[in-house]
């Protein structure tokens, strides 16, 4: 493509609204333009990248045996009412009425629609398993859309849904999707991790997230370099062995009730009492489905509310308000503790507390804490134990011996779920089994954030000069700079000839034949991040040479046309 | 693809809701499924057809120099308010509010969004002309969605928008699109016509519609077989020469005022008076932008309101109500006539009336008509003349000598418009010209109903057994029927080998290896309309032969595998 004849609007200034580097570079390089909050137009350059992502996703989905369909953006409310999500889904679900005042929504996902299709069209176990996918526009009405494509309101997703007779078949289909996702991200040239994940509001049992690693990622991922353990920090397990016996007490001095005027935080308590934070038991009142429950953690640990909720199996878990805490414990927040609790208030303790004796905690009286408490002596051992803490970098790996956890940031670009019968039960997706009996099918669902991958790639792969596209995603593989092409017919014709030859060989090429200074031309190609740059100038032509530079390198190389051809052909 | 492993749900019965044959066959053959009124899911087979249309459209748009982008489905109301269409567009524009109560709509077209992009990104005449297009989901909230894909609410369109400095450049861009459209429809193998068209609500000057010819088409098209004249009947010109002199009167008897009790229609008038309908001048009161105007036509002609409106250049033209008619003429409907009109009521006569003398008309009194009227003698010649009549089959061609008009039905699948400055003026799309002066750009817009083409093709190309896809649109080019493949390993393996060989040669092939009777297999392939059918059976294998039939033929042919290969390769 010739830049002089293309719609490639560049921005000299970094737009003020763009915080993330991917957002800045995609705007500056003319890949996207903002239409309104969370709404972006894909310009020719950006659309080429998007299509490359789509193509790789499509090929790997097809290879896995999934079949492509296309569902609508607008969905009838009735199906969402059947699944129960019309009520459950928050204001991110954009609801609307048609001219007849019937309710619809813009689809953020398509579980309901696909379940409706399946219950009408699938009758027999012989038709299963089946996996249907689409690459389609979705809408989520984010309260504060930002970060450009990363959290846009309208975006493009690949979503797949599989249907199975039994759990074994679901596991197999899930594994096939997991493998297909690994192939997709490998082919796209991304540094990614598949992590165990919480399946969140979508419901279901087992799930993995696929994260592109990047410092700006919204998610924290704990992983072990020693083995392949990786999990979203929200779910990462602490290495405490739940089967291990509790440490017996030794030499704990007698318990002492101390005055701690207005000492409410663990940090203040440790300082005031001259002890370490790890010698404190912190006590947190939470409301599990509106019923009070005390959680105990070591003072140097943080509560992981999501792990606690999964352990409890409750629908909602939240921190109690100060009023609720005082109402249920009799003590103000900051002075609650496990000793002398009102009868009937259940307690759940983090596994790390088993190894702790001689500790301090709130005394359930204003401005008073205990010192030198000992389980079994001063207060009963908690009846219930669980892994409640947020893991930290340096923790021992929960899977292997000798490994320890690191924590990095990731951008979620894929997610695979085992939905089980969450939707098939409510929408009645039933088929006849071999014995002629009706049976509810099991479902899996599998998403890839196609448009988000474009931004995540830039987050992972850029430098101070601009984007550095992996080969598989680059809008063009080669950029040719025609130096003074407007004035030198020889340069322009040599550049055009090279351009045409590359294009004919199936190597997408952008020829910068604009009437610009060489510095501007070089800066443009660096900004838009094409993997290979070739310079044509009068001086080089006189030598019979071309100048080559890879985007990832800083060295220029003089090459004959044949050598260049071989180099680029080899990279194709 | 193997049918036994594919999601190809067929319907045995024709769904009651489907009126059009395309709707019936696409449902029965498992190409689409209805989700809700006007909303359809594309199943694997249908999506393959849709993608073939998209690909041809994309290639021809790219070949014409247009550049692909992708705009959003959801559009902010502000832009529509700027263009004035937020008020003008009826309830087909689906309006909605986001969580912050801001107004949006689902885009039925994208003139506003593209104009907004252009005014931000195009500054100089050097960047023009430019043509940007997208293939995107659109939404029109039809009051009564029907005919399946033909008039769906959510549908897929290719829309392109071009920007130009002057009319000459616009004409050139328009011509390039016109040519690209012809190539698209030719490549798709469709029998189509490009017709002069009314540009309707979208505004603008010149436009052509592209119609696929089919008896079920909603539009009537007048065309001449003698020359290349073709026009939507809404716009088709009558052959009357506006420059021709009026016929002088000869031998008209004296005018007579006759009693015509309750004779209100032309038909009743002709019968009552014993004259032909062509000897009657019918008089119709219309309201042009709410101002009364009398239109005169020959009794055997019908008024073409659209032609009248274009001639008058008014924003709205409608038939007057009975009350309005009596108020402005003093006579009840059915008795209005051109003689003795109230002063100041303007009159516009159809050109065909110039040749008429000795005619009858209403007398502007209840239950009275004139007989033997004559222009110039009994009443003044009308001051204004225009082409107001609907053309009829058999009319002389308005372009060539000796040709006559035929009228056929067509399905509109494409439309090209010269918008001029309709949008660029309101949204302020201005660039600097060579002299450094700001100038409003001219625009063209060009649409193709991508999803509608799928239905239109079926309307044009089917028989009593099912769909007959043109090669370019078929979901698979070849269908292989493995007779008793479940019982004969030899048949299945031979069929699979042929399937794999064809697929490897880039010929998309469907292998029917389902456990079905041969009759069902044949009927399925006929229904889904693949161009080439190959049968593999034990009997044929023993002969070393395959049985071949083209979907358009009724003859089976016995071929050796080599001969078949040559035949299909030749068709590729």
Description:
The structure is a homodimer of 572-residue chains. Chain A is α+β, with helices and mostly antiparallel strands. Chain A folds into three domains: 13-237 and 407-458, Bira Bifunctional Protein, Domain 2 (BirA Bifunctional Protein, domain 2), CATH 3.30.930; 256-386, YbaK/aminoacyl-tRNA synthetase-associated domain (YbaK protein, Alpha-Beta Complex); 476-571, 3-Layer(aba) Sandwich (Rossmann fold). Chain A contains 15 helices and 31 strands. In chain A, the strands form eight sheets. In chain A, strands 3, 7, 8, 9, 10, 11, 12, 21 and 24 form a nine-stranded mixed sheet that branches. A five-stranded mixed sheet of chain A has the order 16-14-15-17-20. A five-stranded mixed sheet of chain A has the order 28-27-29-30-31, with helices on both faces. In chain A, strand 30 (546-550) and strand 31 form a beta hairpin. The model of chain A has no long low-confidence stretch (mean pLDDT 93). Chains A and B meet through strand 1, strand 2, helix 2, strand 3 and strand 4 of A and strand 1, strand 2, helix 2, strand 3 and strand 4 of B. Chains A, B: Keywords: Aminoacyl-tRNA synthetase, ATP-binding, Cytoplasm, Ligase, Nucleotide-binding, Protein biosynthesis. Chains A, B: It catalyses: tRNA(Pro) + L-proline + ATP = L-prolyl-tRNA(Pro) + AMP + diphosphate. Chains A, B: Homodimer.
